[in-house]
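Predict structure. Chain length: 269.
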Amino acid sequence: MRTVVIRDDDTNALTPPEYLERLYRPFLARGLPVNLAVIPEVKTSVLRPDGRREGFISAGLGGEGPTVPIAKNRQLVEYLRTNRGYHVAQHGCHHDYFEFDLADRAEVIRRLALGERRLQEAGFAPARAFVAPYDRFSRVGLELTARRFDVVSTGWFEWRRVPPKWWPRYVWHKARRGHHWQVGPSLLLRHPGCILSCERSYDSMFEKVKAAVASQPLTVIVTHWWEYFRDRQPDDPFIAVLHRVGQWLADSPDINVVPFADLRPAHLR
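Prediction complete.
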């Protein structure tokens, strides 16, 4: 039996709930849990390196003020709380560029606590999983996050960004050529890249998802809601690929799709 976790990043106070409904109703209808990495208090001025606004802002509803807490979008919050197939992971705090690539311990702690508080103000249970914006951690950011959350999901682990006291475990992890490892009670998960992305070929995307799932016991499939609605227009061919993946997962008796909160150390083997 193989295990799959579906992780969609960047849900925030500017996200139209109808976008998530369009993407994930087929998943929810088939009983497939969807983990949404939710930005607790989104910063509305985040820019890409080319100077354009980030997609999770430009594809959204628009908002006033430098930051907007998730609780401000009451329609979205009610939608997520009503549909129990969604599971909320904490996605940073404001989603600044490389927000958790910080050496300042006090600032990391402040952002972790503020993010947790903003999610709770919206009525969500404390998140069990954490996703860093841009999958980027400093040593301090990774250490403090792992202390606070049962699951840390990211794209990679670099030697220079791993706390020194973790090095023996890291060496063992690298020697096994594994994707995932564990430090204390925290599960550290590495995903195989954003295969479901508008930057990739739609013709080969489905087969690459299947290959990634077949390659390991546990796979985190990452995508981003706003990539399906660039310029606030639905990308129907891309959405069709996502729905094809969902149908395949639901129809595969040897694949178990679970939320982050259900993962246990046994899933890493």
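Summary: Residues 2-268 form a domain with the TIM Barrel fold (CATH 3.20.20.370).
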